[in-house]
């Protein structure tokens, strides 16, 4: 299509667009190819971003975020390979890997630093995973094998992703709920049918998309939009998490709106597990003032 457009724009344009397009196609093909061996070559890593209770300013859980350290292409962000992995079906293997490793990690942190209230782990599921027949036994086996408290596993699902195979997705979501895990509506508000979405699936929590959180500063309707979303979540008995908290002002606004949880660079960026270990060993204090662990004895 890009080529076609370039041509339509005139002869000279083709030379400008073609190399760029060529490079992009080549990179996509390379990623597609290398994804097949990404697990055996051990190139994936999970980063963890703390999810902070905005009233007590304590860490209550973590979101698992995938990182690919490619030996030649460098760090490839998930947005550049998750879509491709979905297309090839390798997403099922990657998704299973993330689930097992993230849960193993949280069990470890809970044993070492969890205290009475255990941390939860939030894992992103892609649409292909949610509508796959294998997802229920996969998660059931994982929960049983790890003796994992199901309520401490939060599964994040993005709305736009559920549109394709609605019936299966709906059934699987209901069955996941039966297993006792928590369902989280990721990137809420970005899609075009958010309200139906709340009605059709029984979510436990809503994550307000970072775009809205960032728009609070620009004045205008940004702040009112976020406070409405928080109220909407509360009316639906959902807990609400604001994504992309990047500065103190945003944090203050969210606290004023009684938003339950926040996540963002201002609180803590996604970090490799060793760096989270360092934070937890120190008692959960981040660079952010007054942030502490749930466990008062640490
Ligand atoms: P997401 O689920 O919405 O995850 C939040 C994204 O916001 C992450 O991007 C995170 O690094 C970023 N973020 C956190 N705090 C801030 C902030 O203060 N400001 C800004 N601007 N961004 C912030 P990341 O890690 O690049 O991941 C992108 C997306 O890739 C995720 O969006 C998620 O949908 C997907 N993804 C990541 N890991 C997995 C995975 O294991 N499986 C699947 N299926 N998708 C994943
Ligand atoms: Mg997410
Ligand atoms: Mg997501
Ligand atoms: Mg999100």
TrEMBL record:
Domain EAL residues, every copy: 28-284
Origin superkingdom: Bacteria
Protein name: EAL domain-containing protein
Classification lineage: Bacteria, Pseudomonadati, Pseudomonadota, Gammaproteobacteria, Chromatiales
Shown chain mapped onto the complete sequence: 388 to 685 of 689
């Amino acid at each position: 299509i890009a080529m076609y457009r370039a041509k339509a724009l005139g002869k000279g344009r083709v030379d400008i667009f073609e190399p760029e397009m060529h490079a992009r196609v080549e990179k996509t093909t390379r990623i597609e190819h290398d994804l097949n061996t990404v697990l055996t070559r051990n190139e994936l890593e999970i980063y963890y971003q703390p999810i902070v209770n905005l009233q007590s300013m304590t860490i209550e859980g973590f979101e698992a975020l995938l990182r690919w350290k490619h030996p030649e292409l460098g760090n490839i962000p998930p947005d550049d390979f998750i879509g491709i992995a979905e297309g090839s079906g390798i997403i099922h293997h990657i998704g299973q890997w993330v689930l097992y490793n993230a849960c193993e990690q949280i069990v470890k942190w809970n044993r070492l630093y969890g205290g009475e209230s255990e941390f939860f782990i939030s894992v992103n599921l892609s649409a292909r995973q949610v509508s796959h027949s294998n997802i229920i036994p996969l998660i059931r086996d994982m929960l049983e094998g790890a003796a994992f408290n199901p309520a401490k596993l939060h599964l994040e699902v993005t709305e736009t992703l559920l549109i394709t195979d609605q019936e299966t997705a709906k059934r699987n979501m209901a069955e996941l709920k039966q297993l006792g895990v928590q369902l989280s509506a990721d990137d809420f508000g970005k899609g075009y049918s958010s309200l139906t979405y709340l009605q059709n699936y029984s979510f436990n929590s809503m994550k307000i998309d970072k775009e809205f959180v960032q728009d609070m500063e620009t004045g205008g309707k940004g702040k009112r939009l976020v406070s409405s979303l928080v109220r909407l979540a509360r009316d639906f008995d959902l807990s609400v998490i604001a994504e992309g908290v990047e500065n103190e002002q945003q944090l203050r606004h969210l606290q004023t709106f009684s938003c339950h949880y926040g996540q963002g660079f201002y609180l803590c960026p996604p970090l490799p597990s060793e760096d989270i270990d360092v934070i937890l060993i120190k008692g959960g204090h981040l660079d952010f003032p007054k942030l502490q662990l749930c466990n008062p004895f640490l």
